[in-house]
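User: Please fill in residues for this 184-position structure.
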C-alpha cells in the first residue's frame, strides 16, 4: 500500500503519462498526422478554402501561402498557424481559420495518447510512432518532447492487451538515469 505522504508527493509532482489506445480526445487535442485529409476554411474568404491531404513530412499546400507544416499539430494549433501566416503576409486582415478533419489515415485504435508532465502532450498516429522510432517508453517520451522539470519519478502506462486493459508502472529514475532497459 502506498503511504499518503508518498501519494501526495507523486500527486504534487503532477506527472502521469498514459498510453491509451482506442480512447477519443477532444478535437483540439488530436494531433494531425501524415495521410489525414483536412478541410480548411477562412471566414469570409471562400476562395481560400481548400481540402488537402497531409504529406509524409506533415506539410500541406495552402492557397497564396504555399507549403505549411501542420503535421503533429492539434487542429487548433493548425488554425493558428495558418491564420498567422495569412495575417503576416497581409493576405487577410484578422483571419478566422477553421480546420476540419475529414478523414483520418489511421483508426482510433492505431493511436497513442501521451498525457502529463511532458513538453508536447497529445495523440500520435501509429505512423508517427514507427517512423519516429517510438516503439518503447524512451521513444514515446522523446516523441512527446521529453519530460518537464516537474515530472515525477514514475509513470503509468495503460494499454489494451488481448482485449483487456493492463497497467504498468515505469521507474523513470531507473530507466533514464541508471539505464535500466528492463523499464523500457
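Assistant: Residues filled in for all 184 positions:
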Amino acid at each position: 500500500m502506498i503511504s499518503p505522504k508518498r501519494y501526495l508527493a507523486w500527486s504534487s509532482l503532477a506527472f502521469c503519462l498514459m498510453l491509451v489506445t482506442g480512447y477519443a480526445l477532444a478535437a483540439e487535442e488530436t494531433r494531425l498526422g501524415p495521410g489525414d485529409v483536412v478541410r480548411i476554411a477562412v471566414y469570409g474568404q471562400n476562395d481560400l478554402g481548400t481540402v488537402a491531404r497531409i504529406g509524409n513530412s506533415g506539410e500541406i499546400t495552402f492557397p497564396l501561402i504555399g507549403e505549411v507544416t501542420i503535421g503533429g499539430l492539434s487542429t487548433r494549433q493548425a488554425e493558428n498557424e495558418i491564420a498567422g501566416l495569412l495575417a503576416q503576409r497581409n493576405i487577410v486582415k484578422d483571419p478566422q481559420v477553421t480546420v476540419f478533419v475529414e478523414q483520418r489515415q489511421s483508426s482510433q485504435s492505431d493511436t497513442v495518447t501521451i498525457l502529463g508532465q511532458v513538453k508536447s502532450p497529445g495523440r500520435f498516429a501509429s505512423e508517427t510512432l514507427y517512423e519516429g522510432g517510438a516503439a518503447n517508453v524512451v521513444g514515446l517520451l522523446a516523441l512527446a518532447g521529453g519530460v518537464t522539470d516537474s515530472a515525477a519519478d514514475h509513470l503509468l502506462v495503460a494499454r489494451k492487451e488481448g482485449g483487456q486493459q493492463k497497467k504498468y508502472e515505469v521507474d523513470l529514475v531507473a530507466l533514464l538515469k541508471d539505464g535500466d532497459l528492463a523499464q523500457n
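For context: The CA atoms of residues 113 and 123 lie 4 Å apart.
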